[in-house]
């Protein structure tokens, strides 16, 4: 049989069960010609006669029609079951959840958050990649991620951004740095010393923008493309750095320590938020994660 639709098969099955085009049309709330056309199409496509028409007495199935009725009924049942299964996928909080978070805070917050989330939704399988802001946004557009955790920096118009927490910038210095004894620092004070710059897209622009109103631009002594390298250079005395995510332990990977000092003055804090692609309906797992993040430790993590 070629090119038969489920609707045509359903019309045929009901007509065969009721042995009447008229009664089938009434039960399915369609016109009699629609039922007749479906039957005629199936007979033409199959090359066999499915019904014997009795004038004023309805229909009776042929041998071929009886055989097809059984198979069609089974197929329609399977189709209905498949739709119910598809609907359940949209209701059950289970299955894969692909996310991405910015490099700086992904390793600090996401493993603990995912573990806590799984205590409430154990059938979800979360996966969180790390990436730069532009890569996360591109992943949302391409459908690789349902959720992204990004900063409020150059958020495109097609991205929905829901703020979660604010991270003010702070200075990181070695214990023997000339400024290490201060309880608070200003951008003007920092501009007199060598700087270790976290050289990531958007991040570098943000940190350098803090010096726009300073009397001197920063003396960039080193550029690093990993947070671990920044911490290591700072702890080993190569200069101060500006960061904004809580550092956790004040240690570099080589075991040397550094100190963090808050900044005075009007310095713009960065806001971390949940990013989704506008117009996309999130899976139940992604919706559950969104609600979870709104009430998680991340939403209370402002430094």
Structure write-up:
With 303 residues, the chain is of the alpha/beta class. It folds into three domains: 6-71, Winged helix-like DNA-binding domain superfamily/Winged helix DNA-binding domain (Arc Repressor Mutant, subunit A); 92-165 and 271-300, Periplasmic binding protein-like II (D-Maltodextrin-Binding Protein, domain 2, 3-Layer(aba) Sandwich); 170-268, Periplasmic binding protein-like II (D-Maltodextrin-Binding Protein, domain 2, 3-Layer(aba) Sandwich). The chain contains ten helices and twelve strands. It has helices at 6-18, 21-28, 32-46, 63-89, 106-120, 133-142, 187-190, 203-209, 227-235, 284-294; strands spanning 51-54, 58-61, 95-102, 124-131, 147-151, 159-167, 170-173, 194-198, 219-224, 241-243, 259-262, 270-277. It has a five-stranded mixed sheet, sandwiched between helices. A three-stranded antiparallel sheet has the order 10-7-11, covered by helices on one side. Strand 1 (51-54) and strand 2 form a beta hairpin. The termini are far apart.
């Amino acid at each position: 049989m070629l090119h038969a639709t489920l609707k045509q098969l359903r019309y045929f099955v009901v007509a065969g069960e009721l042995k009447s085009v008229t009664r089938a049309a009434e039960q399915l709330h369609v016109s009699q010609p629609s039922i007749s056309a479906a039957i005629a199409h199936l007979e033409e496509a199959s090359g066999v006669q499915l019904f014997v028409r009795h004038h004023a007495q309805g229909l009776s199935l042929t041998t071929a029609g009886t055989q097809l009725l059984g198979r069609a009924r089974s197929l329609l049942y399977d189709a209905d079951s498949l739709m119910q299964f598809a609907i359940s996928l949209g209701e059950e909080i289970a299955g894969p959840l692909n996310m991405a978070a910015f490099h700086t805070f992904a390793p600090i917050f996401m493993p603990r958050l995912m573990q806590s989330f799984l205590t409430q939704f154990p059938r979800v399988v979360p996966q969180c990649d790390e990436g730069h802001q532009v890569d996360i946004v591109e992943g949302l557009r391409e459908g690789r991620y349902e959720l992204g955790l990004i900063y409020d920096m150059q958020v495109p118009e097609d991205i929905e951004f829901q703020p979660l927490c604010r991270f003010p910038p702070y200075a990181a210095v070695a214990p023997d740095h000339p400024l290490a004894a201060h309880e608070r620092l200003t951008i003007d004070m920092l501009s007199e010393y060598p700087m270790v710059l976290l050289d990531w897209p958007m991040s570098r622009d943000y940190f350098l923008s803090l010096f726009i109103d300073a009397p001197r631009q920063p003396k960039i002594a080193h550029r690093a493309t990993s947070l671990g390298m920044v911490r290591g250079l700072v702890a080993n005395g190569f200069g101060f750095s500006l960061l904004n995510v809580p550092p956790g332990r004040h240690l570099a990977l080589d075991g040397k320590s550094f100190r963090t000092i808050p900044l005075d003055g009007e310095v713009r804090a960065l806001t971390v938020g949940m990013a989704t692609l506008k117009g996309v309906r999130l899976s139940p797992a992604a919706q559950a994660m969104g609600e979870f993040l709104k009430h998680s430790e991340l939403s209370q993590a402002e430094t």
